[in-house]
Amino acid sequence: MVVKKQCVAMLLAGGQGSRLGALTKKRAKPAVPYGGKYKIIDFPLSNCVNSGIDTVGVLTQYEPLELNEYIGTGAPWDLDVTAGGALVLPPYVSGQKGEWYSGTANAIYQNIPFIERYDPDYILVLSGDHIYKMDYSDMLDFHRKKGADATIAVIEVPMEEASRFGIMNTDEEGKIVEFEEKPPVPKSNTASMGIYIFNWKTIRSYLMQDNDDPHSDNDFGKNIIPAMLTAGEKLYAYVFKGYWKDVGTIDSLWESNMELLDDSPQLDLHADWFRIFSRNYALPPHYVGESGKVVNSIIGDGCKIYGEVVNSVISPGVVIGRGSVVRDSIIMKETEIGKSCTVNKSILDEEVTLEDNVYIGGEQKITVVGTGVYATKGAIISEGDMIEPNRVLKQD
C-alpha cells in the first residue's frame, strides 16, 4: 500500500566513528551521548519532527544494537505514527543477494523499495552524527523556488580548515558550478554539511546508474554529486547560518559539550522553540549533598553529588563521592566515582566505576575512559590516555 508523502528523510546512522576511539568500540557514532541528556542522533530526528517531516528511515550498520534499542518505536520524537514514523533500516538479504552498505549512495539505493512505499516528491538525506538545529522546511522551500534537482546545505568554515571538507563553488545565484572533495588548495570556504534534498525521480535514476558502475565508491560526494554536475543538472547551495558541529573527534566532542556551559551558548538547548527531544529515563531529580558543590555545570536527573563539580557535563544517574573533584570533564550515564577522586579534563563513558582515591587526567590533553572500566583504589590514569572498555585498572 502506497501512502503519499511530500518528503521522506533518510538518516545515515551507520558510521563507525573510529576517531572517537574507546567511545565507539561498542556503539555507532550517532549513539554517542551528548550534553548530559541526549545522544547525537537526537538532533537530526528532532530537526525532522520540528520541520514537519514524519517519515524517517534510519539506516544502521556498525554496532546497531544500542541505536536500535534507543530509537525503538520513535515515540520520544513523536515519530510513532501509523503511516510513516521512524523506521530502522539495516542492510538485509533479498532473494539470493545481501551485502553491507558500501557507501552513502548505496545505502539509499538498497532502500529504494522503502522510499517508494511513500511515493515522495523529494528525499532528504541526512547524516546522523552532527550537532545542530535546522528547519529543513526552509531548505525545501528554497529547493522548490530555485527549481533545483538537488540542494546541498553548506556552511562557511575557516579557510584554513576548508581542505577537510567537500567544497561547493557557486555563482552569484547560489548555483553550484564546481565541487571539490577535500581539496588541498580550496577555492572557497563553502563546505558541504552532508545534508541533501533531491527530487526523487531524478536521484533515483542516478542511484541506479551508480549501482551499475563497478568502479564507483557509491558515495554522494565522490560520485553522485559530480555525475549530476557533469550532466548539467541544477544544483544549488543552501547557506546555513546557525551552530553546526561535526563531533567526529575526541577534541570536537569535548569542545561542543563545553560550549554548552557558556553564559549565552550558540546552541541553546533551553529555548522553547525548536526543542531537541530525547528518550526520558524517568529518574528522580538530581541531589547535591551538604558536602557537594556545583559550579557552572550541567547535572542530569538521578545524580547524587557529594563532591565538587566544576565546569563539567554530568549525565543521568552519576554518583560523585565526598571529597572528589570533577573539573572540565564529561561524565556519562550511571558512572560511579568514589571518595577523594580527582578527574581533570576527561571523558568517562557510561557505567565506569572508580573506587576511592583514583586520579584521572591533567590540564592539557583529554583523557578518555571507555564504558564499563573499573579502577581500583588509588589507580592513576595519565593525561591523554585512551582506556579501552571493560578493563580493570589497578594501582601500580
Describe this structure in words.
Alpha-D-glucose 1-phosphate binds at residues 101, 166, 181-182, 192. The chain has 396 residues and is α/β, with parallel strands linked by helices. The chain has eight helices and 34 strands. It is elongated and about 65 Å long.
Keyword list:
seven-stranded parallel β-sheet, ATP-binding, seven-stranded mixed β-sheet, glucose-1-phosphate adenylyltransferase activity, ADP-Glc_PPase, 396 residues, ADP_Glu_pyroP_CS, transferase, alpha/beta
Question: What is the element layout, followed by pairings?
Answer:
Elements: E1 7-12, E2 33-34, E3 38-39, H1 42-50, E4 55-59, H2 65-71, E5 85-88, E6 93-94, E7 97-98, H3 104-109, H4 112-116, E8 122-127, E9 130-132, H5 136-146, E10 150-156, E11 166-170, E12 176-181, E13 190-199, H6 200-211, H7 220-230, E14 235-239, E15 244-246, H8 250-259, E16 287-288, E17 293-295, E18 298-299, E19 304-305, E20 308-310, E21 313-314, E22 319-320, E23 325-327, E24 330-331, E25 336-337, E26 342-344, E27 346-348, E28 353-354, E29 359-361, E30 367-369, E31 374-375, E32 380-381, E33 386-387, E34 392-393
Parallel strand pairs: 1-4, 1-8, 4-5, 10-14, 16-19, 17-20, 18-21, 19-22, 20-23, 21-24, 22-25, 23-26, 24-27, 25-28, 26-29, 27-30, 28-31, 29-32, 30-33, 31-34
Antiparallel strand pairs: 2-3, 6-7, 8-13, 9-15, 10-13, 11-12
